């Protein structure tokens, strides 16, 4: 193994683990979308769903782009090359994202950050999402920080929706018992009235 392959192997191992972590979160979010569909189709719920999906996709894509230097000149040059590919080919695929990762990683993580900020500003009525806090972070740390916020948000949503669901089930059960008690009282009253007549 050459000296340059060790950092590449480390970066690939990190990227694979990051993608797996993101996919697990994606699966949980998908389950929440399917199970509580009516919550996500309201005006606020729909906006929150779009933001959660934006964060999830952005971090999924960015996971294999984090092995970058962050030097401004390289970010600019990759952005310029990305723009040239966009104009020349009128198409962008993962290969162009990967080739211009100095710029595209920033694009995807900034998109995730913006969606996280909107989520934390209260677009989701049934759970509070932690706010994104600015700090100097390496690309991998920035990705991990955003994924941590997404994981926390999905876990909080999962808990809140389960509690809402169980309280609604409890309310339905109590309402059913109340109806049954009213019917029993009504039948008892009807029997007494007919016996007295």
Question: Helix and strand layout, with pairings?
Answer:
Blueprint lengths: L4 H31 L1 H4 L2 H20 L9 H18 L4 H6 L1 H23 L15 H58 L1
- Uncertain segments are none
Order of helix and strand elements from N to C terminus: HHHHHHH
User: Total helix count?
Assistant: 7
The major beta sheet can be summarized as:
none
> Mean of residue pLDDT?
85
Helix content: over 70%
Strand-residue proportion: under 5%
Global morphology: elongated
Our measurement of the CA-to-CA distance between the termini, rounded to an integer number of angstroms, reads 101 Å
What's the β-strand tally? 0
**What is the total number of structural domains?**
1
Structural class: mainly alpha
Radius of gyration, in angstroms, nearest whole number: 26 Å
Describe this structure in words.
- By secondary structure, the protein is mainly alpha-helical.
- It has 7 helices and no strands.
- The protein has helices at 5-35, 37-40, 43-62, 72-89, 94-99, 101-123, 139-196.
- The longest helix is centred in the C-terminal third of the chain and has 58 residues, at 139-196.
- It is elongated, with a radius of gyration of 26 Å.
Name its key features:
81% helix, mainly alpha, elongated, 197 residues
Give a short summary of the structure:
The chain is 81% helix and 0% strand.
